[in-house]
Amino acid sequence: MTVDLLNIDTPALILDETKMDANIARMRDKARSLGVTLRPHLKTSKCWEVAKRQLWTPQGPATVSTLKEAEEFALHGVKDMIYAVGIAPQKLPRVAALVRRGVDLKIILDSVEAARLVTQYCQKESLEIKVLIEIDCDGHRSGLTPDSAEIINVARALEAPARLVGVLTHAGGSYDVDTHEALLVRSRGERDGICRAAKKLRDAGYELSIVSVGSTPTALTDEDLTGVTELRAGVYVFFDLFQAGVGVCQISDIALSLLVTVIGHQMEKGWVITDGGWMALSRDRGTANQKIDQGYGLVCDVHGHLIDDLWVSGANQEHGIISARNGRKINPKDFPIGMRLRILPNHACPTGAQHPCYYVVNNSLEIKDCWKRFYGW
Amino acid sequence: MTVDLLNIDTPALILDETKMDANIARMRDKARSLGVTLRPHLKTSKCWEVAKRQLWTPQGPATVSTLKEAEEFALHGVKDMIYAVGIAPQKLPRVAALVRRGVDLKIILDSVEAARLVTQYCQKESLEIKVLIEIDCDGHRSGLTPDSAEIINVARALEAPARLVGVLTHAGGSYDVDTHEALLVRSRGERDGICRAAKKLRDAGYELSIVSVGSTPTALTDEDLTGVTELRAGVYVFFDLFQAGVGVCQISDIALSLLVTVIGHQMEKGWVITDGGWMALSRDRGTANQKIDQGYGLVCDVHGHLIDDLWVSGANQEHGIISARNGRKINPKDFPIGMRLRILPNHACPTGAQHPCYYVVNNSLEIKDCWKRFYGW
């Protein structure tokens, strides 16, 4: 018996390889046309089979969001990584273990306090750890503002064998806009901010080999990255309804979907009930604040074709409620019990994280492979 | 070196055993005082070490939300289970495999269509599978309304060797209220609804051994369950901020928390940044629609004591942003880099699901055990 979308257990995470490959090619071409290195963020997939298709070379460069990701990808031979979340001293032994194994893992920080802790650790261990200073280009999270005098103080606090190698920023605020013009402002702000910070450090005599920017929306909008050495982006590998809402992909580009089975109906309400609840879709409702709220997801047939005006209007832990947006009642006969559907998610990162593996399909219902994901920290 | 909350890797899921034990005892006493059997829902923990403390006997009874749960708990010897999500025909082979191994796994359904599919399967396999009809007592999800004529049609469509053994309802609508009076209405509605459905079936000549109700809020509110045989509830084992908002527990009863580490600050904004983002807390923002929005969670010191007016006001994948509700700026000196904090979650079920294990503590910082969780379907 062929293993296909009609007979595997549900809910199950489906990955359309053709769409993924196109998304990967698009970002690779974009980085090439901008003349910068692509350092893909591997946090979205947490899967070597996906990651290796994104990487420029098998050794990297790559970005990770957890030390678990760094450790897993290092096992597959990835050497050049940035752990792009501010470091805490308790995490340094795991960083050091990787560095001692020959992994070129770089860390980031944004304070004199953290710089001193890293310096102390490196001196105690007689170990060089490479550091980037995190810059805040849009006020959405961590980092020092590009014009902060504190940048130089942090650089000074980083003493050998700790070594400053660059600056990094992430225009996370780009997730909040949805026009090309607004994205251009974010993209330019990201580039200008990181270049000002880099200039400040170089003027003070520091050598920087890495000037790193990136978010999927700004990466796909960038027109000129003069002064920047590399581009980071993650969710582009699968895309999702949220990125479609931002305007940097089409709904037809989304490579990830949740395969579900119809388990019942509420006739009077016109609902179809499936086994795809929020445990399988995640609780992410990122599109709720966009122009078009996509509920817990849009509904496709088993082949991945969008169906009319259906959406997942509600979800419990293991139940998804599908209804029609225009208020019409869905005819239960069109969606018999046992029928298979595919749901496009709000956000690929949290939806993916709910699943042990990806079932890979390629222009047919047949499952050509099952790629394992890891999770945890 | 003692393994404790100051030196394990973060983010990490912490389980306060003393609080969990008190929550378990409270629900057990409640069921006993109502004169009904407690059939705990094991979907919250997905962990045998937790589940075995909730069960009346090592064989059950228990409720599960996935066949994976049924299979995992069956390996530990649990026999009497209800899979409380409407069945689809593709799932019957896994049900049958358990039944053939001697597991008394019951399924639920709410349509003639599903009843026929189950009957056909049981006849083809010459296998008895026990079935409960799902009743909808409050319009929130699945099930037939208590007075629906369709209930008898479903019972008729269940032919031997499929066997009707009972009725089941879940007052999920109780999650939307927050006063004792409103909870009492939900609790009585749940009981009255299921009793009307049971009477209808018994009047038609069907024998029912199970009349099952339950949700954590109604279970803790019930005053009289005459006519009901058993009570189901799940999240009570840990409780969470959402249940505190409903009013059925105190914040101090919450047994589950996320241990995080301070990784930075935004001085001008008065933010503390931690490594506990939405990947570790989940995207659940259930309290957003309650009287008190608790953000992504409330902040405790490492000992579990609530801190002033702090909350997790924002979260990215691996970043948590802690701020003060009253607008004051948090002094970074009070929360140095490397400091450990504990976050009380909105909803124990999705937060738990992000983690491979529970680190168990008991009135100290020392970790007395690590209990594995399973995930997937």
Automatic annotation (TrEMBL), chains A, B:
Gene3D superfamilies: Alanine racemase, D-serine dehydratase-like domain. The lineage of its organism: Bacteria, Pseudomonadati, Pseudomonadota, Betaproteobacteria, Burkholderiales. Belongs to the DSD1 family. SMART domains: D-ser_dehydrat (SM01119). It holds the Pfam family Ala_racemase_N. Residues 255-362 form the D-serine dehydratase-like domain. Keywords: Lyase. This is DSD1 family PLP-dependent enzyme. It comes from the Bacteria. InterPro entries: Ala_racemase_N (IPR001608), D-amino_acid_metab_enzyme (IPR051466), D-ser_dehydrat-like_dom (IPR026956), D-ser_dehydrat-like_sf (IPR042208), PLP-binding_barrel (IPR029066).
